[in-house]
Amino acid sequence: MTREKNNCNKCPELINKKCNGKVNDCMCKGCPRNLGECLVVRYCRETESVLYSDEEH
Fold it and tell me: How many CB atoms lie within 10 A of CB 55?
């Protein structure tokens, strides 16, 4: 069983004040991995996909 954890404190949306942390459908809320690590390496180990920022597209 995978444990969900709240990664809001590492989320760029919250850090850039584009989110108040109260939404329930954010990828940060249900991600069982360390979001901060995924953002640094730009790769999601949970979905095995490359992460792109809004600035890149």
Answer: 5
Averaged pLDDT, 41-47: 87
- Would you tell me how many other CB atoms lie within 10 Å of the CB of residue 53? 9
Its pTM stands at 0.59
3, pLDDT greater than 60:
no
> For residue 50, what is the DSSP state?
E
Beta strands in the chain (DSSP E): 43-44, 49-50
For residue 37, what are its two tokens? 């690590």
Exposure string (b/e) for 5-32, b if CB count within 10 Å is 16 or more?
eebbebbebbeeeeeeeeeeebebbebe
